[in-house]
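Checklist before submission:
- one chain only
- standard amino acids only
- sequence pasted in full

Submission:
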Amino acid sequence: MNKKLLFFIPVIPAAVWFNVPRLRIWLLAKTYVGQEEIPTNAGFAKKAFEKKMIAAGFVATFDWCMLFVRMVLKSALYGKKKDEILQLITAATQGSYQNLLNAKLKYIKYTQKPKPGDIAFYKWLNNPLHGHAEIVNTVNLKDKKYTSISGNSEIKTGVQGVAIRERDLNFSYKNNFCLLGFIRIE
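Returned file contents:
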């Protein structure tokens, strides 16, 4: 009997994941995989998801990868940490990355060795003011690969939304795209 595993959440004691922000970020982000965009960034097929994205700052026609990350953080974090981090994150990927790098907050760490729940940041070679942000899903350091939960990404041919993407753990330009690093929220 061939059963397909569609969704897997590891058994992690609540006391652990509740106290580790990146695990909350990761587990929450996984719940949105498969959400579909209305073409040309006009909105979202499921109105409940669209409502959360609008609350995170989404406006039709915006590239929304960074706002997807913001929406997840808005639900996964709480208290002063949530307030401080949400002030640093806007719709602009590169601006948000610089804000997080420059923040003098002890629970924000830059790393090149990602773990699930970290935020990956990229920039475009032909337009360095623009980039992409996504949440790390799985990591294979041996093969220098990771998977991400990525908003504003192709789910299937011609359909954008929240997708699992496989990425190279490579900090040089590839296909006009450069991985800058990862931000971990502890």
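Reviewer check: The mean pLDDT is 91.
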